[in-house]
Amino acid sequence: MDGGRMVMPVKALKTALAGVILAMAWACGGGGGGTPDVAPTLSVQPADLAVNPGDPATFSVTATGTAPLTYQWRKGGAALSGATAATYTLAAAAASDAGAYDVVVSNKAGSVTSRSATLTVKTVAPTITTQPVGGEVFSGNAFTLLVAASGTAPLTYQWSKDGTALAGATDARYFLAATAVSDSGTYTCKVTNAAGSATSNAAVLSVMPPTTFDLTIDTMYIVQSTQDYAGTVPLVAGKDGLLRVFVKATEANTAKPQVRVRLYNGATLLQTWTIQAPGASVPTVMDESSLAGSWNLPLAGSFIQPGYSILADVDPGGTILEQSKLNNAYPTSGSPLPLTVSTVPTWAVTLIPITQGGLTANLTADNLGKWTTRLGLIAPVATLDVKLGAAYTTSTTLSSDGTGWSALLAELEAKRIADGVQASRYYFGAVATSYASGTAGLGYVPGAAATTGYRSALGWDKTGYSDGGNYPEVLAHEVGHNFGRNHAPCGNPGNVDTAYPYAGAQLGVYGYNTATGLVQDAKSTLDIMSYCHPLWISDYTFKGMLTWRLASGLGDVVTAGAAVQDGLLAWGRTEGGAWILEPAFRVRGVFNPGSGPHAVQAVDAEGREVAAVEVDTAAVGCGNDPAERAFAVFIPLGTGDFDRIHAIRLKTGSQVLATRQAGPTTAGVAELRVLPSGGATLRWTSGHPAALVRSPRTGEVLAIARDGAVDIPAAQEVDVQLSDGVHTRQLHLKPAQAVPTSLD
């Protein structure tokens, strides 16, 4: 109070008036009765950070005030996109992230800005992680020096030679496209950043004067039995072989480079091999005649498959100085070489010991595998299915001049059909002969249209001869005829293949024996289809056999026939230019339709056709008569057709080449008597020119006999079919049974 007056400071007066005004506002209803908004305040400020490059960095604040609060982080005063939370994190800090960061926190009552927090991204000095490597090169070759370093980016590079910086050499890679002798020296690289620098170890480069010495791969190929230098002979899937890589040098040397071989299936690497040098130097002239002239790798058949390819390179480690490294691969393109591989069917064969003239072939379960050894090595076969058939007896006697061989071969093909085996199964009859020099074998050569027949051949069982006369070579030769091959021109054979490309049946190209590991000479070794020796197989014969085996419906790729059914076995051959139709037999078999220029007809007594099939004939390889032909065919018949048939005809167009009529109607009587030897003799009545003897247990034909009698090696029950030429009388006999039991 001052003289009765109240005295107040101005500031206090303003506060009091404000309270009065606010009280008046509330009294007038202006306050609404709510709580006032509170502007944001920061209780925790963002802290300064210092991190290593690549480490995370997180800024955070703690704010209070009326919700909702919004956040906006800034760097250097500029808003950061998406940085709208109470924390802001850099997942991997980089040097460019260094700077001042703050955050603006807002609500509807106001905003507040945090302190400026500094982010420091530490700088790491360079460290050399990969040192440059020097080397030796000939002048003109390219050379590359490489260095690698860690440290905070950006890193700068400077290469130096002999301590002097190289102009423009400021990358991690220093490349010399064409070196010169003056490029020899000591090279280092200095790597620098803001934190410091590091210098690499010294790399010494020696550049020698130009050289003419160079290594290349002239060619490479896989040989399974035969191959030409260009590698054009197709391969057989699953058949073992030898990879030969022919490395060539430009001049005399003492280099012994390795060869790396990579095998691919499509783009997938399957296998890598390293082949050591076969000698003390690299040849300058290619020589296939010796394995010392190539880098060699035996390959199992599993590595020779369709779709596979190979790539080879000489001196893969680059240890030998040469003119160029750009031509060390084969193919030179660097792309793998596709293999030409054919998948062939399993070769199925039944080997049959034959008794003729009282002699039985030495063919047993113990020596069965030896018979097909040579064929398996040389021919386009990979998998063999070899079976031992039941012993077969013939009334035919074989002579050294070839007499009887064609008749026996015809019997064997007839047996093959009568046995009802798969059309693709071959029959090979083994014989023992009374002579040591003369005809050794015989085999059918199918005609161009023969679809499923003529897979029969014969051969003697002898050993101790020059290569070509022993039983495995005889089998390979005669089955070669079954594979569609005629003779190669040596030894004066008949039916010579006039297209054979090499003089005197020479191989023409080098072969290889995977069993002995020996190269087969191109000139001194002769083709298996000749009559000369020593023998192997030419590329020409191999490709011909392969083509035949792969020919659908002609070779060994055959379609399964119909179900087994009744029918007639008709067969015949020429002798002296005239056709002979052999006695027909009623059999159960599989009909495989064929085609050809001939027809075999079954006709009734009025000459009307009951049934007919087309047929092609086969030539007889190794026969005495080059013009000799033969056929054998299964004619399917209905139950009522057999009695209607009166004759069998062989025709070409409208011309009848031969006819076989039924003989006089007689009851077939036969007996089977035990012999002191343990065998049995079968005798039957006249009027039936031939008898077919079959095992009722296995169904195999044991004999096709003539002249009313035949001896069987083992006394056993048999089914006998007596043929009058067209009709068949069927009997079942037991040893010593005089009165037969008819099966009709």
TrEMBL record:
Keywords: Disulfide bond, Signal. Residues 40-120, 126-206 form the Ig-like domain. InterPro entries: Cell_Adh-Cytoskel_Orgn (IPR050958), Ig-like_dom (IPR007110), Ig-like_dom_sf (IPR036179), Ig-like_fold (IPR013783), Ig_I-set (IPR013098), Ig_sub (IPR003599), MetalloPept_cat_dom_sf (IPR024079). SMART domains: IG (SM00409). Residues 1-27 form the signal peptide. It comes from the Bacteria. PROSITE patterns: IG_LIKE (PS50835). GO terms for cellular component: plasma membrane. GO terms for molecular function: metallopeptidase activity. This is Ig-like domain-containing protein. It comes from Mesoterricola sediminis.
